[in-house]
Every structure is written in structure tokens, then in C-alpha cells.
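Progress report, Aim 2. The chain analyzed during this reporting quarter is listed below.
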Amino acid sequence: MGVKVLLVDDHPIVLLGLRNLLQARPEFDVVGEATDGLSAFEMLRRCKPDALVVDLMLPDMDGFEVLRHCKAQAGKTKTIVLSMHANEAYMVEAFRSGAMAYVLKDALPDDLVHAILAVVEGRRYLSATLLERVIQAYINKRHKESGDPYTALTDREREVFGLAVNGRSNPQIAMKLAISPRTVEIHRANMMRKLNLRHQSDLIRYAMTRGVAVGA
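Predicted C-alpha cells for the chain:
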């Protein structure tokens, strides 16, 4: 017997296409279909599928609730989201809710096949187009961070930064942070060096470019 799959989508024509796609392959066995969340709950209990393919937009409840319900049951069913939404917020919430894979409805048929096979083996899966977006977003974030010297500061140096831009002296900062004035002096020097700043006026201008309140 192949991988038991339960399909959940509120469009009958989509269910028909999914069933035909999967039933044409010997490794799958479509054990049930549902067009709403409540029916999906019942079929999950009755069919005990290996994989659940679910849309996020359902008439009585959203697919996120179905995902959370499936996750709460702590069963062996692995969940795959099949959605038209390529928005990052949807993807993040889906994975937080228990999804193991996220596939777009405009993806190639083999994308869904690969997703199901991956999750039943315990691996996560993301559509190729979505994966490219995630990688590019990560690259852009790293470039942005590497171009901002503030990200190189330690937590303590950032504390000193916040107090220094508001005019606190080294002794005042030391008292506030419960450390010695000499330690503050070291942190302040390191902070200024990393930010490539020389004077207090430079520090204030830099803080203003970051939108930090000055003079509080």
C-alpha cells in the first residue's frame, strides 16, 4: 500500500485534479477528501493518513487551524500546505502551525509529489520558487547587516551607546550598568572604534541617522 493521503480544499475541481495526479502514481493512495475544516477533522480521525494536503482558505475555518489541530493530535500525519499565497507571512505562520511543507498551487505537479515524499520521510519541503525567494531575502538581509557597523556591537556596547548618545558621562553609565568607570571607558572606546566615530558630536549624528532619540 502506498502513502495514504488526505486532501482538503474547498474547490471540487482542485480536489479532482489532485486525486487524479496522485492516484496515477503507485506510491500514493488517496484515502479521503474534504472541502471544509470540520470534515477534515473527522477524516483525520477516521482515515489516519500519512500525509495531509490542505489549502489555507477554507469556508468554516482557515487551514492554519486544521494544521494546529493535526499537530495537537501528535499523530504520524505529516502536513503539506497547498496554497495560492506566496506571501512570507503565510509561509511562516503555516510552519509555526505545524506544516512540514509549503507548495504553491501554480507549481509543477511534481513539486507536490516531492513534497509529500519528503515529509513522510521527516524532511521539510518548500516550493523551488519560494526557496529562491527565501535565499534571496537572507542574502539581502546579510548584505544589509554587513553594511551597518552597529550590528558588530556587543550587547554591552549597545547599552553604552544608548546612554552615551543621551549625554551620560562614563561615571553615570557605570552607575547605571553597575560596572566600573574603567570598564565603561573600554566599552565606549570599542564602540566608537567599531562605528568609526571620533567625537561625541559624531556619535549624536550617527544616532540620529538610526532614528535613536537623542538628549532624553
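Residues 3-138 form a domain with the Rossmann fold fold (CATH 3.40.50.2300). Strands lie at 3-8, 28-34, 51-54, 78-83, 101-104, 125-126. These observations will guide the mutagenesis work planned for the next reporting period.
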